[in-house]
């Protein structure tokens, strides 16, 4: 029997990725070309450089994805592409490539919201998972608690009022000298540190609020470093990493569980780059177990930016909303 093939492109930040999926959830290929090594020299992603590298890599990544999947462009039934949120120049590279292929081969095209992609990574990981469920999305650019009521449909219950979780990790890593990308480096360093060495305030905001604020924590880390330096005391990087991480994770775990209990959802779906964090996965699992909630977490490769999750989201969006036309544009601040 004939499989329905979706090919998707993800280029919203510093990963050029192209994937081919069969029937929406089976990954035939998921090629990810990372620019991390290039941006490390600058301490973070430089948007203009990211766009240029997407341009250089795109055709090769498309070809490799088709080859690994054992198909040609003529076999593709649907094209998906991230059209926001993200860096505008980077997004445009993906959107232009997808439109060109859609036009040349007369393939239907669907623009995918990057955040819906992150959630959809879980549909790949768990073939039986279906909405409704509660979801915690923690990435470099976004932090949200959303209730997913159906494929592609969600109610946003909370979000960050300043920095995203991944952004806080990256900024703190920079000031303690761990470099870019900070998240994985803090994750590793924290394993050697004492999470109770320094007490950083947990910011819960107003009672009942599912919003977040992390910029104060970032400042608290900076103040701690300055105070210690002025007093001539040695700083333990693992202790700062562990103490910072404990403050972040305690808040996001509490709020995610509170949201699931409030809305009587017994499924909690974790998504986004920070979902690769070992302590977050472990602490969230322990709290879910206490409350009879089943936790869904994708493999780390599906947590960080990749096109397989975009293809999966495209597959479901096409079924409910149909195709977009060739006027599809990039929206850097697209809301979830
Ligand atoms: O989802 P993603 O790949 O890109 C965005 O859409 O933003 O997320 C990247 C973010 C970065 O801030 C990175 O530091 C963080 O995810 N991250 C981690 C870990 N792996 C990636 N944060 C904490 N622990 C990790 N193991
Ligand atoms: Zn992402």
TrEMBL record:
Its EC number is 2.3.1.234. It catalyses: L-threonylcarbamoyladenylate + adenosine(37) in tRNA = N(6)-L-threonylcarbamoyladenosine(37) in tRNA + AMP + H(+). One of its GO terms (cellular component) is cytoplasm. Its cofactor is Fe(2+). Pfam families: TsaD. Belongs to the KAE1 / TsaD family. GO terms for biological process: tRNA threonylcarbamoyladenosine modification. Fe cation binds at residues 114, 118, 305. This is tRNA N6-adenosine threonylcarbamoyltransferase. Residues 26-311 form the Gcp-like domain. Substrate binds at residues 137-141, 170, 183, 187, 277.
